[in-house]
UniProtKB/TrEMBL annotation:
Its main location: membrane. Keywords: Membrane, Transmembrane, Transmembrane helix. Pfam families: EamA. It comes from Roseovarius marisflavi. GO terms for cellular component: membrane. This is EamA-like transporter family protein. The chain crosses the membrane at residues 29-51, 63-83, 89-107, 114-131, 137-158, 170-190, 202-221, 228-248, 254-272.
Amino acid sequence: MWMLGAVLAFSSMAVAGRAVSFELDTFEIMMYRSMIGLCLVVSVAGITGHYRQITTRSPATQLIRNIFHFSGQNLWFYAITVIPLAQVFALEFTAPLWVLILSPLVLGERLTKMRVLAAIIGFIGILIVARPSPETLSLGTIAAAAAAIGFAGSILFTKRLTRSETLTCILFWMTLSQSIFGLLCAGIDGDIALPSLASAPWLLVIACAGLTAHFCLTSALSIAPATLVAPVDFTRLPLIAIIGLLVYNEPIDAMVILGAAIIFGANYLNLWSETSKRR
């Protein structure tokens, strides 16, 4: 049930992001999303007493983590406006594969033969989804693929932070720092657009959905193994493909579904291997 909540939250964020993209650029979306998120985090932390968990122990790690997340999220918001939603989500599923590749550098973890095999299989899936060629490759597919790398960096440094920090602390510094990043980037041209009455509810959906998705995902992983959680997360792809078809008249691309299935298979192979090893 927690994972179904995460799936719905991620999907609603994509729809809401596309709804406001015609009025606001990605930096403005991130600025408003983070400011609303910051108000929500501070309010909940104050009501529950969790504000005591907010520390300043790891400023450098918090900063690096949020630069990765801010970059990845901006690229993701751009990608959902220029390529089909299913293709964005399929490429987003490569983030765990980038975690495999980068974890030896960031976390000092060993790159095993199974992890290398999973990365190779996942790369084949990327090629099927993106089909890189002068005719098919676009800024949208490049942005979606790069967003996955940004999310992977965020995952790796979040893992480092969880060794000493709570979820409340991580979310507080994420929303605060990204409010500042968004304000600086959105205001660099001296023109920050104010949301219209029509866009304001969509911005609220983006902020609430982003926090809800992370909370649901963390809750699911706290009570169930990753091998059970991952298949439910994969239902995001067919769901967003159906939404794209019904709402935006985007055709369902069989090659995108095939490539995404291969990417998911690579991720699941690694999860199964790691779980079996621990047992």
